Amino acid sequence: MASSARNDYTSDKITVLKGLEAVRRRPGMYVGGTDVKALHHLIYEVVDNSIDEALAGFCDHITVTIHEDQSVSVADNGRGIPVAEHPTEKVSSLELVMTTLHAGGKFDSSNYKVSGGLHGVGVSAVNALSEWLIAEVTRDGGIWRQEYKRGVPQGPVTQVAETPTERDDQTGTRIQFRFDQDIFTDVPGYSWHTLLVRFREMAFVTKGIKITFRDEREDPPREHNFYFEGGVTSFVRYLNRNRIALNEPVYVEKEIDNVGVEVAIQYTDAYTESVFAFANTIHTPDGGTHMTGLRGALTRTINDYARKNSLLKDNDPNFTGEDTREGLTAIVSVKHPDPQFESQTKVKLMNAEVKTIVEAVVAERFTSFMEEHPRQAKSIIEKCLTSSRARNAAKKARELVLRKSALESSTLPGKLADCSSRDTGSTELYIVEGDSAGGSAKQGRDRRFQAILPLRGKILNTERARLDKILSNNEVKALITALGTGIGDDFNLEGLRYGRIIIMTDADVDGAHIRTLLLTFFFRYMPDLIEHGHLFIAQPPLYQIKHKKEITYVYTEDEKNAYLAKLNGSASGLNIQRYKGLGEMNPEQLWETTMDPEVRVILQVTIEDAASADNVFDMLMGSVVAPRRKFIQTHAKQVQNLDV
Known about the structure:
Elements: H1 2-8, H2 21-25, H3 28-31, H4 36-55, E1 61-66, E2 72-76, H5 93-99, H6 122-128, E3 130-139, E4 142-149, E5 152-153, E6 158-162, E7 172-179, H7 192-205, E8 210-215, E9 222-226, H8 232-239, E10 250-256, E11 259-267, E12 274-279, E13 282-283, H9 289-308, H10 321-325, E14 328-335, H11 352-372, H12 374-402, E15 428-433, H13 435-444, E16 450-455, H14 467-470, H15 474-483, E17 500-504, H16 509-525, H17 527-531, E18 535-538, E19 543-547, E20 550-554, H18 557-566, E21 574-578, H19 587-595, E22 602-604, H20 610-621, H21 625-634
Parallel strand pairs: 1-8, 12-14, 15-16, 15-17, 17-18
Antiparallel strand pairs: 1-2, 2-7, 3-4, 3-7, 4-5, 4-6, 8-9, 10-11, 11-14, 12-13, 18-22, 19-20, 19-21
């Protein structure tokens, strides 16, 4: 059998994928998959090309439009993609760029000193993954056009109009495409909020660029314009608008060995760090060498200053990186002529030399700032000292928590009702509000794979507390021990005992508050649980409607109204029960509506954008009251009809 299979592997078994066929066959290699995140990546690839024109000094306005048919157009006033015949390939350069992988102007440094689209596969990959695409170029006195279907040209590049003679300098590129539903089969469409956040970031890190974002799916269409004179300094101020700042933003912009570095730094009263890294205007969520350089410079500079000014005593240990990052908000943006990313989706910068360059630039500027502003420097040092003391206290508390196993009854006396299975692929932990709901959940669950952890009262607001105080809270300790992952420096996802962690609270204001407190804790101290898809929110029904002998559960006011409308005013035999708490349901009802995997609805918690999520938790749970009051007043109408 093995010999026969070996002999079957012949030359005719070798497959050659021509043109853009490889992209369609393996989209994950080029845009990261076929999910909604990859769908947005199509837009980013096209916009990145326009941003590259801006970085080269030839473009100052980009317009992105989502049309009613879910197609997207990206237009800029850059130089326009060349349309003349390529000297060696004997085809229009526009067609070459649009249909050939690793073809473009980014490989010649005379065209682009720095560029985000460095692989030459961006727009051609978008073309391959689009049902149709239209490229229009304005240059050389005319408007040139070519259409494609799934990456295949539908005719040659042709001139469709002339530019007005009085506008000889009019140039630009407009790309319009509609994603291929045969490839992106299960996506809801583009998210206005996700794209809004991305374009805001791009405008912050590209000084002098105006980005217009328009959504024609709405009636009337909505539009937002971004333009920031202050660049990354404006970005830091924006991130810290709900925090109390300890210093004015520290800004530096410098170029060393053709690598441009732009950094803005500000410390606040927060207990976590908010640092965002960009390479050639592309957000690198996993950081990289530029992030490492920034952090190293701050730790070294703060320690040197504290020693020099006797703010750290001779017998005091140096601050750790963790100490110097508490309350830090920073943006580090580098422009590199040859950036090396971890993958085509550009999540991490890998250039080793960038670390040294960023570290030198930041250390020099931050040292000058601290010497010139001793009062602000002292506030930062005091913040680090407090952080250091809290870190040591947290270490002792963490070790105390971790010394006990989640299986020991002494750790969770009468709280955790564990499941029998140890297969994390199927197990679930329900975090339930109160003993009453916990009792119903324990009786109604499937004991084989569902565990129940009731919480008594509201847990600590972890947005306003350091880790040492958090670890002294009994409810938080029970939660950490039950999960088995540890926390902080000791967090290890491999120790997770349950594949799904499901927050199940009452459908009222108190339940929403407890849910927000838990989400704050997970976002700040166990973000990997969210990033790896382990955190969920249960959706208990709001009403039980009995009509004659039929029982129906509805989950929203709109569902209730729609159901009643179907009855055509017939109220005979009608009984509506509003569930104010999970404890009002008997175990069978709780299982049937909220816990049975066959019929329940659970929402997976995701983080589309870290900066936006960071701001939301700051605003809702932080120490500054005014932004929270404004939010409540703005959204008060949405909760006026709640029966609480």
